Each structure stands twice: as structure tokens, then as C-alpha cells.
């Protein structure tokens, strides 16, 4: 391996930093030695209606049970809003930056309180009660945050579905958690183009009804004024409804382990899983990581470019920052509209201090050239962050040198929907940086590298990344399917949480995430199960079989490569290829658009019929010289055809 350049902690990063190196070492040691004491202290960073007397009660064995602060009572919206009002009622809570650069808004904490209370009252008026599931299918507008917080205020469980998902995908999520209440908008707006959210919702509701889930009420926010369908009695306008209720709503007293939200995420098999997070542990963990990982100080302007449809948006646009009384920026648009300078212009416009984005966006912007960055000031920046996928050292150095002028630390934060918050990350004032490494565990996190046989590896090693013990932000179960939770995360390596990621630890104890070791791929930072794309493909009448793998892609990180076997008599041609691409987009959404489709008369299978994905991955990578042993294949000749017709010839 080539020499890695270490970026030392600069004096300016240390100057007002909340955590220096010694504090990190001390707190980390305390946190893993005595988690009860450590979290017992830090649990007090949020307010409680009823204080907890128990802290940690978790087991990764047998049935797996995870409880934190279990006898305490609190409320998330009350922590994110009410407790700030006395001191910072007039401070901006949310800066909204529209898709159009001339469109923006600021919402103070006082205003946030009124918006959230009104929407909570609207939900109550229509019969939503504690424990009910509410689906939120929204563009990146403040009302998305109001909707989430309003749910938490009355104890309803929200399920936010990313606005880029198709009606089919939305329907599946509505049906899985039996959600009868939906909050959406007429249309979204991204890069100047409208997204038909309400029309998608209408279609999804029809599909869900056929599956047995009836949606009773749809609250519609008017965003663009575009034309939409309307079902009288079922659909109501947000602006009409909030005028009928009071701007005050008492927060429900929630038990620490009451469900907070469900967020669907892809796994290596089957349908997306409903990851369930609960109230108190999640809030403690996201507020603490938001403060220390980003070295957040009172008054900082903080911007995370994620969408609220993903976990990053939940934890680090809405809950973490608002629990800390921060000013959080919500961006409706895309990085390259109206120009490739948009991110940097928004940073200058709102004097952003902390900026958190995905490697895929950085790679695309890097490709557009430095001039788009150089023409902006970016003087306000103090901390930069990345999340969602491994960042290649070139993109990291570009972010550091060009965006940050070599003066701003980068926190490469590794975590997952399941983990609730950041687990492995540098801390700006404490951790020397290495381009491409997520560096070291956050407080209370015990990473372990394990080999294929479950043996724990010490020192310098490569293996499967597990976490040995619980942390408060961890998911508690798969909604409605605890057995799947146990099977997916705790059965591969007994007594450990298995992340699904491969990882290397270097001589300094730094962690380098190498990517998924299961059949999950990461396309532009969006997580996707290859099984989902396969199931979309085989639902097409002309397809008999499909196998999907990821391959390295310069901008997206990974691209989607599909091997498709057609029904007897079907002709493989360009028209069908286009039709299949459209079909997958319709079934899942644009994020699942296949990059390559290879028509394959046969797939490489073992004699027992198992598809050998290893071979398919290699061919997709154009690395067929190293196919390894193919002698166990039922018909080794299929491999020659696959190689001859590969779509990624260099
Ligand atoms: C990947 C996103 C390398 C990883 C918060 C993980 C990363 C999956 C990083 C979770 C990082 C996330 N470096 N890989 N800093 N952050 N990943 O659930 O493979 O959408 O398992 O959560 O993204 O994706 P998810």
C-alpha cells in the first residue's frame, strides 16, 4: 500500500474545540469501561418529564433486547423546540433554501413551535393517536420537518418515504406498516423540474388498497400550485386545515422505548426492512454526535445536504441539530442547479460554518472543475463532513484543498440507518486525518473485525465489521418482524451486531471501510438491495431471470449492472433494453436506474442452482482474467458468452 499522508490537527481546529485528544481518549475509555455511568451522565443532555433510574439494559444474545433509559419519560418535539423557546425563541431554527436561488425562508424557534403544534392538532382532529403510523412523502420543504416533529409531539410513529421513490415503492411502505394517514405536497421541485408527489401518492394509495391497507386521510401542502387529482373527503389542504386549530399542543409523555419512527432500508434479501428507532436513546445519541462530531457551537450555521427521506436527514438535518438548538439549513434543490457553484454560493449566502455532504456529490463537482469553487469565498466554513459511502482519497484531498483551502478539517462519518447516528468518525479538534479513513470510534462504540469463521482479529487486520456492544442510537427491531432483526444482524456472528461492511484497521488503529460484503450496493450514496432490482426486472413479462451486481463507477461510487435472461422466443434489442430501464424506474424509482443491461442466454450457476455472483461481479468489473475456479459450474460455457458480451469493455 502506498504511503498515507496524515493531516495533523491544526492549531486553529483545536483552539475552541469541544474535544481535544486527551479528552477523547479519556471519555472513550470511560465510555467502554462503564457504559452505565457514561451514558447515565450524558442522558441528561436532553430534558425528561420523568428521569430514568436505569441506563443500559441490552443483550445481543438469544432473542436480542435493547433498552436504554427504559423507565424515563420524555418527548422528542418538546426537546427539539419547547426547551429552547425561553433563550432562543427568536433565533432561526430552519433556514430554507429553495430550488430557485431567489426562494428562501427563515423559521424561528417560536414559529417552529406554532407550525408543529398546529399540524399536531390537525392530526389529532383527524383521529391520529399515539402509536399510529403516519407516512410522510414530501419534498425538502420546512413542512417535512414540521410533519416529523408533529408526529413525535403526539406520539405517532412516522415513516418518511424519499420523494424519489415510485408509487409502487411508496405503496409497499404504506402497506407494510399499515399507515392510514399520509402527508405529502402537490409537487416537489428539483433542478427546475416538478416531481408529481400527489399524483404518485394517489397511485400508491390505490395499490396499497388492493394489498389491504386503506388510507383515510391525505394532507397536501401546496408547494408549486401544479394541477393534481383530488379525492373529496379523503384529501385536505394543509393551509386550510392548520387555520382550523390552535397553535398550542401539549407534548405527549413518551416512554423512553416508545417507537419514534420507522425508516425503510434495503438489505441483501427480500423487501426493504422497516428499521425501528425509539424515543430517548436515539435523541441522546444524535444530539451528542451532532455536537461533538461537528464541533457544533451555539450560533453556528449548520448545513447537511441530505434529504429527509434518508436517515442522514432524520438524524442530522432535523433531530440532532434541533435538539441542540442549532440553526439547520434545509436545501430543496440539487448541487448543480442553476450552476455547478450552487453549494458554495449557498455557503456564502447563509455564512454556513459546518457543511455535511456525500462523496458522490463531491466527485461530480470535482469533475466540473475548480473554477466553480474558486469564484466563491467559503470563508465561513469551519468543519466539513462526508457520509454515505467510502470517499476515495482524490475526492477527499479535493474537498480538503479546494473547498476548504487546506484549512478546514473533514469528518468522514461512517454509520448506517440501523445505527441511528455516527459510529466511526474523526473529531475536529482531536483526530489527525487520513484521506479515505473514517478513523476512530465515537464514545461508547466498540468496533471489531471478524474473519469468515467469526474469529475476532486484533491489530492490523481486514475483516467484517461488527460492533461488540450496544449504543443508545441503535435500532431496536425490524417493524413487525423481530425474528428478521435477529437473523439479519445477530446470527452471522453470535453476540455481535454485524454491519454488512468490510473494513481494514491500520497500525494506528484507524478504520477504513471497504464497502459492503453482502448483496447491498451503494449507488450515489443511496443504498439498494440487488434483490430489489432483480425482482423489478423479473416482474417484466419478457424476463425469465435476472442477476444484478454493482461495479465501480467514477461518480456514483457503484453503478448497477444487470444480467437478464429473456423468455424463450424474445429478441434482445435496444428497444427492450430501454423498456427494461423504464420498467425498473417505474417499479422502484429513478435511483434504481440500471446503468448496464447485458442480455445473457444463461447465468453461471452451481449444480445446485445457486447463481455465482462472484463471477458476475468480476465480469461487470471487466476483470475476467481473475474469475477463479469455475469448475463447479453446471455449465462452464455460459461464462464465455458472458465475457464476450460484457458491457464494460475497457
Ligand atoms: C456506507 C447512511 C464508507 C456503508 C448513513 C454503510 C459508508 C451504508 C460511510 C449505510 C462512510 C456510510 N464510509 N462507507 N463514511 N457511511 N457508508 O443505511 O456501506 O443509507 O453500511 O446510512 O453506507 O447506508 P445507509
From TrEMBL:
<keyword id="KW-0067">ATP-binding</keyword>
<dbReference type="GO" id="GO:0046872">
    <property type="term" value="F:metal ion binding"/>
</dbReference>
<keyword id="KW-0547">Nucleotide-binding</keyword>
<dbReference type="Pfam" id="PF16177">
    <property type="entry name" value="ACAS_N"/>
</dbReference>
<keyword id="KW-0460">Magnesium</keyword>
<dbReference type="Pfam" id="PF13193">
    <property type="entry name" value="AMP-binding_C"/>
</dbReference>
<keyword id="KW-0436">Ligase</keyword>
<feature type="binding site">
    <location>
        <position position="540"/>
    </location>
    <ligand>
        <name>Mg(2+)</name>
    </ligand>
</feature>
<feature type="modified residue" description="N6-acetyllysine">
    <location>
        <position position="610"/>
    </location>
</feature>
<dbReference type="InterPro" id="IPR045851">
    <property type="entry name" value="AMP-bd_C_sf"/>
</dbReference>
<feature type="binding site">
    <location>
        <begin position="412"/>
        <end position="417"/>
    </location>
    <ligand>
        <name>ATP</name>
    </ligand>
</feature>
<keyword id="KW-0007">Acetylation</keyword>
<feature type="domain" description="AMP-dependent synthetase/ligase">
    <location>
        <begin position="82"/>
        <end position="470"/>
    </location>
</feature>
<feature type="binding site">
    <location>
        <position position="524"/>
    </location>
    <ligand>
        <name>CoA</name>
    </ligand>
</feature>
<feature type="binding site">
    <location>
        <position position="543"/>
    </location>
    <ligand>
        <name>Mg(2+)</name>
    </ligand>
</feature>
<feature type="binding site">
    <location>
        <position position="501"/>
    </location>
    <ligand>
        <name>ATP</name>
    </ligand>
</feature>
<feature type="binding site">
    <location>
        <begin position="190"/>
        <end position="193"/>
    </location>
    <ligand>
        <name>CoA</name>
    </ligand>
</feature>
<comment type="function">
    <text>Catalyzes the conversion of acetate into acetyl-CoA (AcCoA), an essential intermediate at the junction of anabolic and catabolic pathways. AcsA undergoes a two-step reaction. In the first half reaction, AcsA combines acetate with ATP to form acetyl-adenylate (AcAMP) intermediate. In the second half reaction, it can then transfer the acetyl group from AcAMP to the sulfhydryl group of CoA, forming the product AcCoA.</text>
</comment>
<dbReference type="GO" id="GO:0005524">
    <property type="term" value="F:ATP binding"/>
</dbReference>
<dbReference type="InterPro" id="IPR025110">
    <property type="entry name" value="AMP-bd_C"/>
</dbReference>
<protein>
    <recommendedName>
        <fullName>Acetyl-coenzyme A synthetase</fullName>
        <ecNumber>6.2.1.1</ecNumber>
    </recommendedName>
</protein>
<dbReference type="InterPro" id="IPR032387">
    <property type="entry name" value="ACAS_N"/>
</dbReference>
<feature type="binding site">
    <location>
        <position position="585"/>
    </location>
    <ligand>
        <name>CoA</name>
    </ligand>
</feature>
<dbReference type="GO" id="GO:0019427">
    <property type="term" value="P:acetyl-CoA biosynthetic process from acetate"/>
</dbReference>
<feature type="binding site">
    <location>
        <position position="516"/>
    </location>
    <ligand>
        <name>ATP</name>
    </ligand>
</feature>
<feature type="binding site">
    <location>
        <position position="527"/>
    </location>
    <ligand>
        <name>ATP</name>
    </ligand>
</feature>
<dbReference type="Pfam" id="PF00501">
    <property type="entry name" value="AMP-binding"/>
</dbReference>
<dbReference type="InterPro" id="IPR000873">
    <property type="entry name" value="AMP-dep_synth/lig_dom"/>
</dbReference>
<comment type="similarity">
    <text>Belongs to the ATP-dependent AMP-binding enzyme family.</text>
</comment>
<feature type="binding site">
    <location>
        <begin position="388"/>
        <end position="390"/>
    </location>
    <ligand>
        <name>ATP</name>
    </ligand>
</feature>
<feature type="binding site">
    <location>
        <position position="538"/>
    </location>
    <ligand>
        <name>Mg(2+)</name>
    </ligand>
</feature>
<feature type="domain" description="AMP-binding enzyme C-terminal">
    <location>
        <begin position="532"/>
        <end position="610"/>
    </location>
</feature>
<keyword id="KW-0479">Metal-binding</keyword>
<dbReference type="GO" id="GO:0003987">
    <property type="term" value="F:acetate-CoA ligase activity"/>
</dbReference>
<dbReference type="GO" id="GO:0005829">
    <property type="term" value="C:cytosol"/>
</dbReference>
<feature type="binding site">
    <location>
        <position position="336"/>
    </location>
    <ligand>
        <name>CoA</name>
    </ligand>
</feature>
<dbReference type="InterPro" id="IPR011904">
    <property type="entry name" value="Ac_CoA_lig"/>
</dbReference>
<dbReference type="InterPro" id="IPR020845">
    <property type="entry name" value="AMP-binding_CS"/>
</dbReference>
<dbReference type="GO" id="GO:0016208">
    <property type="term" value="F:AMP binding"/>
</dbReference>
<feature type="domain" description="Acetyl-coenzyme A synthetase N-terminal">
    <location>
        <begin position="24"/>
        <end position="80"/>
    </location>
</feature>
<feature type="binding site">
    <location>
        <position position="312"/>
    </location>
    <ligand>
        <name>CoA</name>
    </ligand>
</feature>
<dbReference type="InterPro" id="IPR042099">
    <property type="entry name" value="ANL_N_sf"/>
</dbReference>
Amino acid at each position: 500500500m502506498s504511503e498515507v499522508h496524515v493531516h495533523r490537527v491544526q492549531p486553529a481546529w483545536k483552539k475552541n474545540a469541544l474535544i481535544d485528544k486527551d479528552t477523547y481518549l479519556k471519555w472513550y475509555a470511560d465510555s467502554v469501561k462503564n457504559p452505565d455511568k457514561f451514558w447515565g451522565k450524558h442522558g441528561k443532555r436532553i430534558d425528561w418529564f420523568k428521569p430514568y433510574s436505569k441506563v443500559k439494559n441490552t443483550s445481543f444474545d438469544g432473542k436480542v433486547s435493547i433498552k436504554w433509559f427504559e423507565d424515563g419519560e420524555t418527548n422528542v418535539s418538546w426537546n427539539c423546540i419547547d426547551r429552547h423557546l425561553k433563550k432562543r425563541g427568536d433565533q432561526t431554527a430552519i433556514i430554507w433554501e429553495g430550488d430557485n436561488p431567489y426562494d428562501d425562508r427563515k423559521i424561528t424557534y417560536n414559529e417552529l413551535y406554532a407550525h408543529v403544534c398546529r399540524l399536531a392538532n390537525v392530526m389529532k382532529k383527524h383521529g391520529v393517536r399515539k402509536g399510529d403510523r403516519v407516512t410522510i412523502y414530501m419534498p425538502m420543504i420546512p413542512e417535512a420537518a414540521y410533519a416529523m416533529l408533529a408526529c413525535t409531539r403526539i406520539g405517532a410513529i412516522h415513516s418518511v418515504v424519499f420523494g424519489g421513490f415510485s408509487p409502487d415503492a411508496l405503496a409497499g411502505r404504506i402497506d407494510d406498516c399499515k399507515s392510514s394517514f399520509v402527508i405529502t405536497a402537490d409537487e416537489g421541485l428539483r433542478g427546475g423540474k416538478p416531481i408529481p408527489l400527489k399524483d404518485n401518492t394517489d397511485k400508491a394509495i390505490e395499490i396499497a388498497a388492493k394489498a389491504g391497507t386503506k388510507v383515510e386521510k391525505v394532507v397536501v401542502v401546496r408547494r408549486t400550485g401544479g394541477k393534481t387529482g383530488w379525492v373529496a373527503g379523503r384529501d385536505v389542504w394543509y393551509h386550510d386545515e392548520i387555520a382550523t386549530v390552535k397553535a398550542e399542543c401539549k407534548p405527549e409523555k413518551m416512554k423512553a422505548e416508545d417507537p419514534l419512527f420507522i425508516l425503510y432500508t434495503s438489505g441483501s434479501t427480500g423487501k426493504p426492512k422497516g428499521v425501528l428507532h425509539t424515543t430517548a436513546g436515539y435523541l441522546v445519541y444524535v444530539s451528542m454526535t451532532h455536537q461533538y462530531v461537528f464541533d457544533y457551537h451555539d450560533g453556528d450555521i449548520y448545513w447537511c445536504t441530505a434529504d429527509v427521506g434518508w436517515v442522514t436527514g432524520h438524524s442530522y438535518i432535523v433531530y440532532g441539530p434541533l435538539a441542540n438548538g442549532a440553526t439547520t439549513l434545509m436545501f430543496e434543490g440539487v448541487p448543480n442547479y442553476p450552476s455547478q457553484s450552487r453549494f458554495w454560493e449557498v455557503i456564502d449566502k447563509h455564512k454556513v460554518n459546518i457543511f455535511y455532504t456525500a462523496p458522490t456529490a463531491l466527485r461530480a463537482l470535482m469533475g466540473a472543475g475548480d473554477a466553480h469553487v474558486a469564484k466563491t469565498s467559503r470563508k465561513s466554513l469551519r468543519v466539513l463532513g462526508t457520509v454515505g459511502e467510502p470517499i476515495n482519497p482524490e475526492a477527499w484531498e479535493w474537498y480538503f484543498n479546494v473547498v476548504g483551502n487546506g484549512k478546514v478539517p473533514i469528518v468522514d462519518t461512517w454509520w448506517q440507518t440501523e445505527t441511528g447516528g455516527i459510529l466511526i468518525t474523526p473529531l475536529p479538534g482531536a483526530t489527525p486525518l487520513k484521506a479515505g479513513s473514517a478513523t476512530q470510534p465515537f464514545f461508547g462504540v466498540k468496533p471489531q473485525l471478524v474473519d469468515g469463521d467469526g474469529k475476532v482479529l486484533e491489530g492490523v487486520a481486514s475483516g467484517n465489521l461488527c460492533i461488540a456492544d450496544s449504543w443508545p442510537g441503535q435500532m431496536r427491531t425490524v417493524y413487525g418482524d423481530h425474528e428478521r432483526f435477529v437473523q439479519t444482524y445477530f446470527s452471522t456472528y453470535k453476540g455481535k451486531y454485524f454491519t454488512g461492511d468490510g473494513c481494514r484497521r491500520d497500525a494506528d488503529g484507524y478504520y477504513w471501510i471497504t464497502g459492503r460484503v453482502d448483496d447491498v450496493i451503494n449507488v450515489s450514496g443511496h443504498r439498494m438491495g440487488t434483490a430489489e432490482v432483480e425482482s423489478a426486472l423479473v416482474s417484466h413479462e419478457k424476463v425469465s431471470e435476472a442477476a444484478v451486481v454493482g461495479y465501480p463507477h467514477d461518480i456514483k461510487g457503484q453503478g448497477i449492472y444487470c444480467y437478464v435472461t429473456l423468455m424463450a422466443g424474445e429478441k434482445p434489442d435496444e428497444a427492450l433494453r430501454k423498456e427494461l430501464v423504464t420498467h425498473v424506474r417505474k417499479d422502484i424509482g429513478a435511483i434504481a436506474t440500471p446503468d448496464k443491461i447485458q442480455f445473457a442466454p444463461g447465468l453461471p450457476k452451481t449444480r445446485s442452482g445457486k447463481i455465482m455472483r462472484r463471477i458476475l461481479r468480476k465480469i461487470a468489473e471487466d476483470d475476467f482474467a481473475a474469475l477463479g475456479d469455475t469448475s463447479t459450474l453446471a455449465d462452464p460455457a455460459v461464462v464465455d458468452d458472458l465475457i464476450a458480451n460484457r458491457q464494460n469493455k475497457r
